[in-house]
Design goal:
By secondary structure, this protein is α+β, with helices and mostly antiparallel strands. It is built from three helices and five strands. It has one domain. It is about 25% helix and about 20% strand. A five-stranded antiparallel β-sheet has the order 1-2-3-4-5, with no helix packed on it.
Length: about 120
């Protein structure tokens, strides 16, 4: 993981936070040092460097549901998620999508709080 620059690590942590892939979340503030970020990542992943392919693989220490296979191609300086190149810096900074609906809605909590007879 030492081979990956700090901005790329921070972008990956933003994606982790946005998609809620790991818990507890890792703080990725810019004031944190690269060794501190790597130490937090090493709580969840082993970093394996493949010298032939110039790729760093993130191997989960325990099963993480919904988390794709994560690799970082050092030659292209891009992340691979499940063997597909993904522009993580752009994806991590993308504004969240949401929709405001003005249609009246009725909430029913009787499933959780049944009425007493």
């Amino acid at each position: 993981m030492q081979h990956i620059s700090k901005p790329f690590l921070v972008d990956l942590l933003r994606i982790f936070d946005r998609k809620r892939w790991i818990s507890p979340r890792i703080r990725y503030a810019s004031v944190r040092s690269k060794p501190a970020l790597i130490k937090d990542l090493e709580n969840h992943f082993w970093g394996k460097y493949d010298k032939k392919k110039h790729v760093v693989r993130f191997i989960p220490k325990r099963p993480l549901n919904g988390v794709p296979r994560i690799e970082f191609d050092l030659a292209r300086r891009q992340y691979l998620l499940d063997a597909q190149y993904v522009d993580i810096p752009r994806a991590s900074r993308k504004n969240p999508e949401f929709l405001i609906s003005h249609i009246p809605v009725t909430l029913d909590f009787s499933e959780f709080y049944p009425m007493k007879p």
